[in-house]
Design brief:
Elements lengths: L2 H18 L20 E3 L4 E3 L10 H22 L2 E4 L2 E4 L22 H9 L10 E4 L4 E4 L20 H9 L7 H30 L1
Antiparallel strand pairs: 1-2, 3-4, 5-6
């Protein structure tokens, strides 16, 4: 559907609405096409029409109304003839171009948030927020990003190695316990997990006792 077809369709629709509402006896509508000695300029992104044609020194209410109506009609014509038009069952849709005139903000820019005492201390000491580092870490040997923990996590490095570097003292200690050095890394990791779980349960019991005493 071209822009001219859209204008014709809108005119026909308006004529039909006037006829149905019984308002055909009203004065004829003003022309759709507007022509001025000084052409209008537009900022379609802001839905603005600029009229450089001078008004009389003491314009009447009717003259102001006519000038405003002509500007509005010219703006609508410009939108329908230059912007991409898409007609659907919901109506006519236009895609506006970017604005050309920057508009001032309604409210001032928000003030920068004052850092907390911890943020100031962390910045001074160079402490990074671990939560922002993500759950992935780059594995230099594999040349890819891998999880820090969990399945194929970086914390499991060395557990599946078929060759293990021998620490003589550690080997003697492990042998005294009736175990092999292979798999010791996994056992240490699992023991650390169990140790953390025990601490967590102890803290929960302590918190329950403290709450019950109040």
């Amino acid at each position: 559907m071209t822009s001219d077809n859209v204008l014709d369709a809108l005119e026909r629709q308006l004529d039909a609405e006037i006829a149905v509402s019984g308002e055909a006896s009203k004065p004829a509508r003003l022309p759709v096409n507007v022509s001025k000695p000084i052409p209008y300029t537009f900022d379609l992104g802001n839905l603005t029409c600029y009229d450089a044609n001078p008004l009389p020194s003491n314009p009447t209410e009717g003259q102001l109304h006519t000038a405003a109506r002509d500007c509005a009609q010219a703006l609508i014509n410009q939108l329908l003839t230059t912007c991409p038009v898409k007609a659907s069952t919901e109506g006519v849709h236009l895609t506006l171009p970017p604005p050309t005139a920057p508009l001032p903000r309604e409210k001032p820019l928000p003030k920068e948030k004052e850092p907390t005492k911890w943020e100031k201390f962390a910045a001074k000491k160079g402490i990074k927020d671990k939560k922002r580092e993500g759950k992935m870490v780059f594995d230099e040997e594999k040349g890819e990003w891998v999880p820090k923990w969990g399945y194929k996590g970086k914390n499991k490095d060395g557990e599946e190695d078929w060759i293990v570097e021998v620490d003589e003292k550690k080997e003697r200690d492990v042998a005294a316990q009736g175990k092999e050095l292979r798999g010791e890394g996994k056992r240490e990791r699992m023991e650390k997990v169990r140790r953390n779980e025990r601490k967590q349960r102890a803290n929960e019991r302590k918190n329950r006792k403290g709450g019950g005493g109040g």
